[in-house]
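Page 42, continued from yesterday. The earlier attempt failed because a stray header line got pasted into the input along with the sequence. Redoing it now with the clean sequence only.
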Amino acid sequence: MLITHDPAKAADFLRKGELVAFPTETVYGLGASIHDEAAVRAVYAAKGRPLNHPLIVHINGMQGLQRYFSKVSEHAQLLAKHFWPGPLTLVCSKSDEVPNIVTGGQKSVALRWPRHALAQHMLELLDHGVAAPSANRFGRISSTTAEHVREEFADAISCVLDGGPCAVGLESTIVDVRSEQPHILRAGSITQDMISELLKVSAEQKSESDIRVPGQLPSHYAPYTPLFVSESEHFKQTVDTIRVHYKNLVLLASSCPSSSKASDLFFKLPADPEVYAHQFYALLRKADNSKKDAIVIELPIKHGIGLAIRDRLSRAQHR
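This time it went through. Structure tokens are written below.
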């Protein structure tokens, strides 16, 4: 595995049909050219991802809307103009240029223009979109540094474009813009209120949809270690209850409970939900690697990106 800071080298690997992990502002993606079926299949194989589970296509610029959507809705134009490049993925009916292997056989495609400078440079050097799910094994904790990618895949992929820690640290918001009623299919840092205010129509949050998109499975983003979550006001009680069955714990909270033991490992969570999101996956990986019996994590506030973190935690504990 080559770890590089050079987008040109990463682009060369993609042209040759190799897999490249690259940074975005959300999490690292594991990419392949959308026009190289063998490479796209290799992405599914490397992750252990079902072939019917679609991939997000990363593009460079607004022109990707016209190229990869069969019809660009007004909502799609408004959202892309306002939030791109950024942590927003739009879903609409695909054009004929998007292969079925990328969309899991569906007639819709998910598009995103990432904000990370290295990802943008890499995409500028290519003449096609890059299909890229998150750079982690299917259902596991997402990667927010190049080292996380190396831990996940070792030499199973050819190249990692190292862009440092991801700024947001949580996967993009996914919005279905196929109809006049926009639906949020995955929560992220672009919130429901932000989308509704821009479009002047209420964007509905949907837990289920007639199309498949990343991050909708009940179990996802999961550590190997049993994970438990708790509201702030009940955190000590939750820890005491869990300790009946699990002796040595990893505690992630705004403050260490008085009932903690010397054998416990404590990570302090920031009060700011955006900082919490930035550190979330890195801390969860540290907790998972600690070889303790269980992880207990304090939930963030029920607002803004805190709602997206709660979504990830609800799926991470569903094992």
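Notes: Residues 273-289 form the longest helix (17 residues).
Reminder to self: strip header lines before submitting.
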